[in-house]
Amino acid sequence: MSCEAVIGIETHVELKTRSKMFCGCSTEFGAEPNTHTCPVCLGLPGSLPVPNEQAIDWIIAIGLALDSTIAHRSVFHRKNYFYADMPKNYQISQFDIPICSNGHLVVEVDEHRARIGVTRVHMEEDTGKSTHMGGDGRIQSADYTLLDFNRAGVPLVEIVSEPDLRSPAQARAYVQELRDIVATLDVSDAKLEEGSMRFDANISLRPEGTDALGVKVEVKNMNSFRSLERALSFEIDRQQRVLDGGGQVMQETRHWDEAAGVTHSMRSKEESSDYRYFTEPDLVPIEISDEWRERIRSGLPELPSQRRSRYVAMGVDSVTASTIVGGGLGEILEAAVGAGGSARIVSNWLVGEVTAYIRREGRSIEETPLTGGALAELATLVESGDVSSSAAKTVLEGVLNGEGTPKEVAVARDLLAMKDTGALEAVVDEILAYHPDEAARLREGDLKVLGYLMGLVMRATGGKADPKAANEMLRSRA
Fold first, then answer.
1. What's the CA gap between 211 and 206, in Å, rounded?
2. Which class for 162: exposed (0-12), middle (13-18), buried (19 or more C-beta within 10 A)?
3. Closest to 123 (Cα-Cα) out of 270, 222, 15
4. Domain span at residue 465?
5. Vertex 178 angle, CA 173 and 179, to 5°
6. What confidence score (pLDDT) does residue 125 get?
7. Same domain? 39 vs 19
8. Same domain membership, residue 165 and residue 123
9. Statement: residue 361 has pLDDT above 80
10. Handedness of CA 315, 316, 322, 327 (dihedral sign)
11. Helices and strands, counts by H and E, the chain
């Protein structure tokens, strides 16, 4: 039976407010365990929560960025369940009246655009952190568990998509776009490795051409975009094997094992009734006026989709534009273009040599001496023929290492283009003499060998040869 996947994503985003959602404790990451706690976030008797206004502002901003409807009146609820890292044994969350609802997000995969509905965006508080000691680090084999409540009560936004996603690649594109939006709004650092952005996936299979939903399985513990795509691919294959074997998929929650590349059953899947939601008695409803909503809307920055479209209009190809926006390289691109640099040339350097450098060095672009002005200067050197395109990469590395401006690096490393035509002719003649077979093929019109000979010229001149001049000389002197 040929089936299609039906996928929905629940994304949790920790907001980077200075204090927690309902108390004044710090949200600083990496502090000593249990040093950022108080009676409110520990749920001690007699303590009363007070909402964080900044967090409410930011969730409205997220909702507006997703084209959601912003409720005029919203209510907090208690979501009841028992787990060791939940000090109150309930979580303050939202149920039937979220702050934001009925939004959407457009994603593109392989030139296919899809409109993904966003059911709701609601506010809740995060739980504490459990560290399972001994065994393989999972609760089943642990000798004991350590609890850290520093994270308990941190403002947490849950973004729930409609089951509109149809492939692991589309799901990955969706969460990457969400991450870009959250980062652009500057409401969270959105660091997957620190857990400030994480996601669960609900996935089912149904016969192609039908509308009925299959049995839903929730998958947890996907800590990167790659993990999400791998986990969904595995789960699709697993469910397909079950159905092909005449079995039935069970509604359950499964744990993704990154090392083994498989999912494991954790527990049966809960329904909303299992959480016994009821209105939070210690918090009054939130009344969101038109003025409040429009104040937030007026402060929204240019969103990733808008910025990508603008970069494409500047001459950047769409894939490169997406990489620049996702990598936070837009500001330096715009500074370089503003200083006279070519958008196409500069953008290719940014997603190529610059991105490779900062990944290799483990630094951000802000931690390097590179400026938009330096990129514009280097682009001008290339366009004027003073530095070859191959030598420009070496010059750029020198700039990133703090060796000076592009011109200073080019001079210091002896990378300025050869202006002596006679010297270049001598190099070309020598290479043709040492490679008579290739020279003969070039004379006969075989242009495939031209690239090989050009590489030899560039190597012999240390990348200083003018490519256009070298090309013409090879053709004329072969």
1. 8
2. middle
3. 15
4. 421-477
5. 95
6. 94
7. yes
8. yes
9. yes
10. negative
11. 16, 16
